[in-house]
Each structure stands twice: as C-alpha cells, then as structure tokens.
Amino acid sequence: MIDNDLITAYRRDGVVLLRQAFDADWIGRLSAGIERNIAHPGPRSRLWDRDEQGRCCFYDSQVWREIPEYQDFVLNSPCAALAGRLMGSRAVNFFFDAIFVRTPGAQFRTPWHQDEPYWSVKGFDTCSVWMPLVPVERRSALEFVRGSHLWDRKFRQTNFGALTGDARDQVVFDEGEPFPDIEGHRDDYDIVAWDMEPGDAAFFNARIIHGGSGNLAPGRGLKVFNTQWLGDDVRVCFRPEGMDPDHSQIMTEHGLKPGDRPAAPLYPMVWQAETSGAGAPAG
Ligand SMILES: O=C(O)CCC(=O)C(=O)O
Fold first, then answer.
1. pLDDT for 15-31, tens place per residue?
2. Domains in the chain, start-ordered, CATH in brackets?
3. pTM
4. Residue from 110, 114, 169, 196 whose mutation best tests the ligand 1 pocket (most atoms within 8 A of CB)
5. CB distance 178 to 156 below 8 Å
6. What's the mean pLDDT in 124-150?
7. Is there an atom of ligand 1 within 6 Å of 130 CB?
8. How far is the CA of 117 from the centre of ligand 1 (A)?
C-alpha cells in the first residue's frame, strides 16, 4: 500500500490520506472499544465545549492499556507498519491514543494548532493517524495546512486548557510568533481535507498545522480514534511552557529522561523495518 510516491508526498506535504487502510473488523473492534471507553472514562477524559443544547465533544487519551480493543489495534493492526514506512523509519514506537467523540450536530471545531510543541518528545519523525469510525463529510473532517510541517517557525499555540477549564491542561506559550489567523484568511493557505469513510485514515506529521473536525450537520455525529507513532529521531523533551498530554511524571518514574529514546513498557516498539541483518534497531 505504501509506495515511493506516497512516501515522497508524506515528506513533502506532511499529510497523506490512505483509503481503506483498515478493514471492517478493525473498525468494528475500535467502535466497540469507544463504547467501552465512554462507559469507563479514563482519568484524562474531558468534555470539550458543551453548548446550550448539550452538544459536546468527549475526549479521552492514554487509555490503550485499559481498553482491550485499543490495545489490540495498537499492537496488532497494520497501523505501526504503515506509519513506519511513511516516515522511512527503521523502528516505530507507540506514543499514545486519543479519542474525539462529537454528539450529533456539534459545531465545536478544534482550533488550528501543531501537535509537537505540546508533546513530551521532540523530533521530525512522527506520525499521527486520524481515523473516523463513521462517515464524515469534508466540512467536518480534520483539516491540514499542506507543507506547514516544514515551515521551521515557532508559533504561540492555543492553550487548550482555556477550552477545558482544567488546571491539568494549561500549556501557556509565551515565546514565538503569534499563531497565524488561518480561519480569517483561509484562501491564503493550502488547506486540505477529505470526505472520509470508516477504514480511511489521515496520516500526518506532528509539526503540520491542523484543526477543524466539527461543524457537523444536524443529526450527524463523529467518532474518531487517533494514534500517535514515533520514528527514528524522536527523543524525550520536557518543555517549560507545559505539555499536553504531560508524560513527564510517568516518563521520569520509568527512568526516561530528556534526550532518551522513548521505550517500552510505556512506549512499546511495535514495528521494525526488515533489515539485511546488520544494524537492526535495539530497545
Ligand atoms: O479531531 C479533532 O477534533 C482534533 C484532532 C487533532 O487535533 C489531532 O488528532 O491531533
């Protein structure tokens, strides 16, 4: 499924859409997992933006070890191999899972942002996988500013803590340029998104600017399962502005320190490239 044209596009654009990357069995299992997750929310679960009609977005993350369907997907689905081949990495470690479940008609759009500035790791070789488990129209799908992962500019990102009101989510960026007003000047940016079916997935670099995934038509909900994968150059990095999700405590408890490669048991290596023998990745 991953040919040289796709690998080139991933490097150049920072995002590629893979149609029918996951079969109905995976979609069914993850859908069952989301129901289990909603019934048993994890400690990081949040409700984003409940409006006066009760429409909202349920968010949870880092529950893959508690939800067997998620764990199965992380360890046994083709996802790690697809991410590894797109990144051109020798090995891929799992980072974390996130789910976004919008109730029918929810309007809330995730603000434009980049992921890496919030993370407790740093590196170019990253791959996030945004998988809707129900059909989604382009206007309600995640949008990307093509090529923005290569801009090499430091922006002050949104403080998502202002949306959730939760003290644990506060990440306050007071260095860098103001974030560009993309919504106010959409025609100035190369924005891509797609109508997507269950099984389709957007694979994207954590430096690409992305946002959206709301604006639902009346009666239409959205269930998204999202996984983040780490390739060869990624190392642990604790950030003074805060982190979301903040893994610094759990990393430290597991003996990981800035500059280390994320490793099992928190971040299992799920895939390795076939090698001719010498130089196989360790750890
Ligand atoms: O689906 C959403 O609302 C946000 C997704 C997102 O920002 C991400 O996957 O990094």
1. 999 999 999 999 999 99
2. 4-260 (2.60.120.620)
3. 0.95
4. 110
5. yes
6. 98
7. yes
8. 14
